[in-house]
Amino acid sequence: MTADQIAASFTRADGTFLCARWGRPVAPVIFGLADESLDIFRGAIRAGFAHARHPLTQTDPDMGANLMLFFVRDWPELVGIPDLDRLTDAPGLPDRLARADADQYRMFRFDANGGIRACLGFVRMEGRLADSHPARLAEALFMRCALTFAQDVAPSPGTAALIRAAYDPVLPVAAADPAHALRLAARMGDA
Questions:
Q1: Domain ranges of the chain
Q2: I need a surface site. Which of 55, 84, 117, 158 has the fewest CB within 10 A?
Q3: CB-based burial of residue 63 (10 Å sphere; 0-12 exposed, 13-18 middle, 19+ buried)?
Q4: What is the number of alpha carbons within 13 Å of residue 86 lying toward its C-beta?
Q5: Which stretches of the chain drop beneath a pLDDT of 50?
């Protein structure tokens, strides 16, 4: 990946750039999957963060779980999640996702230093994702939760190398300057 391609991956529609990684150990929890699928998704998260050289933990001291993935057949099922509006700070989220015909949605919370503090991911398993291979979907979801990508990313050796480079401890946990892409590109050969 070139520095320009990397910069585009973290540049939002309004032109702002943000590349942030997790600043604390990740405590994942997954809701709405059958046991056989749950193991696949847990394995992908473990393998992905191991590749990034970032620790997982059973419990985050501030939040309990800080990576929460919710799987539903359709968006109205989210209405049944207790305190969803408070959890997401996004009143009416199920209706907004249904109107947009979205397949998935993720939101991040950040620490004072800009590192990812929490990620909430919502996945609708009807429609375009209904026939997704569980392992491929699990890998893609991990990648989308590992960094603050501004667009969908597909699992590939280049994306895996980018994630590993972004977790280099000499780099800041968050950067808002597109020049950060040059630093990431320089480290991708070492990833």
A1: 1-21+152-191, 22-146
A2: 55
A3: middle
A4: 3
A5: 191
